[in-house]
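Q: Here's a chain of 181 amino acids. Please give me its 3D structure as tokens.
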Amino acid sequence: MPLALELRDALRAEAGAILGLLERLVMTESPTTDASGVDAVAAILAGECAFPGLAARPHPGPNGANLEIGPSGGPPEVLVLCHQDTVFPRGTAEKRPFRVAEGRALGPGTADMKAGCAATVFALKALARVRPDLLARVGVLFTSDEESGSPTARPVIERLARGCRAAFVAEPARANGNLVS
């Protein structure tokens, strides 16, 4: 079976777990200026990515840690970028908690970009299950300050991207299908 189909099947089997992680991420508020909230999201992501072949390396900053997840043995060939911070102030998740309605996951930060974080974590897990040899070629950076222009993340992104064959941003498309660039 082609790799893409194996990964698709592995991810479909995890749909409930992906939604569970997304709910945890959405309900863990992480405004850009709230280092403790961003660090709490980073701790969740690091815990989810704690499996053989990958190492979690936090890069502390004033807005919380930029969290690098990557091969234990060297730089990645492919880099996936996500961000942990949101524009929503503390208390928003209490007023508009995570929920699924009409087949859509909703809540503050879901589309920007906690769904991308959850999808990336489970893509790594699926790759580790289906083709663990490829896992050593992939790195992820969960940044802490994208909503303010990435002042602390930018040097880390530039360092990690050097020498990569490809880089992807896991931010979901908008409801109308427009991509975020």
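Q: Can you summarize the key feature?
A: The longest helix spans residues 110-130.
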